[in-house]
Write a structure and sequence with these properties.
It holds the Pfam family MerB. This protein has 203 residues and is an alpha+beta fold. It has helices spanning 11-15, 17-23, 29-36, 44-51, 55-65, 101-111, 158-161, 172-181; strands at residues 5-7, 66-68, 74-77, 80-81, 87-91, 94-98, 114-120, 127-133, 136-141, 146-149, 152-154, 168-169, 186-189, 196-201.
């Protein structure tokens, strides 16, 4: 598939995730996410069906944006995974995982649903938590909660070019320590990516 440079423009990117998927020619991604949110691997034939693309095109998409198990079934796709990561997503009594912190706040807004997120601060190894419902940041623990990101990503290798730079931090001090070793990174408060909140309270 054609290589694209993805420009991450903070709040605008978060609100424009659906538009970005269409520009990447992945307009039916929401259907793939909902299949994975059932908590089961997705057969390649079913992936082709829900994406509404020929099987050869489906293979290309999976190779570039997916994760597969030993049976060749899809277990992860563009930020959402059945495989364990440090970003745990609790959704309707199910547990899934995000590739990175930014995926954790993008996906509930894109899918217009509620989930709670438990992640690990990579500097302190202390868990942090937050709850998002549609476009509403309900609460974070602690307050404020910080997130790292970078401005550009390679569409052919999103995990390495973007996801490995996106984490949650329980304090500005921890975030700045990460930034010292990652000078191309950016740090923001999680609340800055939301126009709606419940007062940024702790749960």
């Amino acid at each position: 598939m054609k290589k694209q440079e993805i420009i991450f423009d903070g709040h605008q990117f978060v609100n424009g995730f659906e538009k970005m998927l269409k520009e990447m020619n992945l307009p039916n991604s929401d259907k793939v996410y909902w299949e994975l949110l059932k908590g089961r691997p997705l057969p390649r034939g079913r992936f082709s069906e829900v994406m509404d693309v020929p099987i050869d095109k489906a293979h290309q998409i999976i190779q570039q944006y997916g994760e597969v198990n030993k049976e060749g079934e899809i277990v992860g796709y563009l930020g959402l995974s059945l495989n364990k990561t440090v970003h745990q997503l609790n959704f309707d009594n199910k547990t899934l995982y995000a590739w990175c912190a930014m995926d954790s706040i993008l996906l509930p807004r894109y899918l217009m649903h509620r989930w709670e997120i438990i992640s690990i601060d990579p500097i302190t190894d202390i868990p942090v938590k937050l709850s998002i419902s549609d476009n509403l940041l309900e609460w974070t623990r602690p307050v404020p909660l910080f997130i790292s990101w970078v401005e550009k990503a390679d569409s052919c290798d999103i995990k390495s070019s973007f996801c490995r730079h996106s984490f949650f931090f329980g304090s500005e001090d921890a975030a700045n320590k990460w930034l010292e070793k990652n000078p191309l990174g950016k740090i923001s408060k999680v609340e800055d990516f939301f126009s709606n909140s419940s007062g940024f309270k702790c749960c």
